[in-house]
Structure formats: C-alpha cells, structure tokens
Amino acid sequence: MKNNVYIKNRLRVVVILTFLILCFHSEAQVKYFILDDSFQAADVTKYKLNTNSLYRIDREISLFNLITSASTNIGHDGRLNILQDYDIMLFAVLPDLSGDEDWVKINPDTIQKAIVNFENLKQLRNKNILSFQHNVVNEKTKFFNSYKIVIKQGDTYYASKNCLLQFYSVRNRSDFFANIYGRINTVGLACSILQFEKIFKSTYPNYEFPLYRLGEGTHSFLDWATDRREYFSKTLKLKNNSDGYQFWTYMDWTMPDSSYDIERGIDRFVYLPGKGIIGGSFDFYFYFNRKKLPIKYTDFLNNIKEEKVMIADDFK
Questions:
Q1: Is 3 inside any structural domain?
Q2: Phi-psi bin for 280: left (phi > 0), alpha (psi -120 to 50), beta?
C-alpha cells in the first residue's frame, strides 16, 4: 500500500516538473521586436480598432504596419518591375480578455538574448512564404505569441501580452497571374464571400463551405499548397475620400474549438495604399475566447457572411 502511495506521489512530481519545464521552454522561445523612435528600416503606421462592433466588448486592438518597398527582379538581367510592390509586416496586439491590461512593463536588459531585429523578421518572412528562392509552401505562416512587439513610452518599455505577427506582399496585377497566399492585389476581380459560396456549392455540393466550419476539428478539405488565398471583395470609400480595399481569406477552420486556429490570422481586412492594413477581424482569437463574450455562434457566422470588419477611427 505504501509503495502504491509512493509511486503515485512520484508520478505527481514528475507530471508537475514536466509541466513546469514545458512552460519555461515555451516562455524561453518567445522573441521580442523593439519598435522605438530609432527604428528607420521601414515606414511604420499605427492604428487602433475598437472591438465593440464585432464582438460586443469595449476593448482595443493595436495594429503596427512595417511597410517596405519590394524590388522585383525580372529576368536574368536584373531589370526591376516598374510596378510599385510593397511588403508588409503586421503586428496585431490583441486584448487580454482575462484582464484589463494589454501591455506589461519590461526591462530590455532581461530579454537581450531574445531580441530580434528587422533583418531577422525579413528572414522569417522569407522562410514562411512561397518565394522564388525557396519555392516551398509552409503550413505555418503566422505567429501568435512567439514574436511580441515592444514599444517605448517615455523611458519605459512595454511588451504586448497577446501578439499576432503575419506577412503580406502587395502585388497589383491582372488575375491572369497567380495570386498566392499572403498576397494583396487591389486590381483583381472582386468577389464577395457570398458570391464565392455559390461558386463553391455548385462545384462541391457535398462539402460544407470552408469558412463556416468554426471549431469543427482538424479535417481540411482544402489543399493548402494551392487553394488558400486572399480574395479582393470590394472598395470602400473612407473618411478622407480615399479608397480602401477589403479582402477576405479563403481558408477553413482546422483546429478544434479548444485551440487557437492561428493560421486564420486577420481573416478579413481593409488595406489602404500607403498606409497598410487599417482594419480587419480576428475571429480565430475571439471565437476561442467566446465564453468571455456576449455573442453566440450565430453572431460569428453572420459576421463572416456579412464580411464585418473593425476600421480605425481615423478612416471611418
């Protein structure tokens, strides 16, 4: 009897130690990118979105666009594409729905070994998109809480609690060219979610429309290497009389409702030339935290069908 109790206690200790080691290992893997006044490697735009219109909770999402011009080489003689191509790194700081603070004070000296610079982020982008150099499609293209943005206010540094990092390339050209996953194309053929649903149903009558499969498990109908992409939906006339371009992501839900479906990322978004991404939705995050929200499954579904997005106040 005593042996059984001893064995059980040993097992408990092993389980607890294993859990603590995993937690420590997970925390140790977090990388930090410091964005302060000294950063000049890219144009930076910042926007705040209020979550009330979509998720009926009065909180904020902070968007940080790091925008760089892309030099597209054409052919072996190295001539540059005359089109204006851009790359966007988007940090989205999501609200901590278990508390009131979305940022935590941090001492840069304590995270020196975990700090990454802009060149590190560019290397990460190149490894996780389909490109001429790599010619590989990776399933993981978005990073949630493994890369966190750090900002400076006065003499104090603050690290984001919940941070999503993702990459986009702006390549405006005819639909006769391929539009791969992660590409923003404002001159393509416009197609709404409801329009595409009809096309999908006529093509695959026995399958459920992928965007409506919230929390239904790991089965994926799509071939991620070829099917995933961002569709241009419509042009929006914004507050300053400029044209914004709304997109939605063709991708299914591949995680059970007990896990974050991170690859969905900012699944609907608004892009403004020269300003970056100024609005969007983050259903993957809020659906996971749905028990903390005053909305139901049908509300999430209607938001998708109606392509509802949050837009920064500067452009409403």
A1: no
A2: left
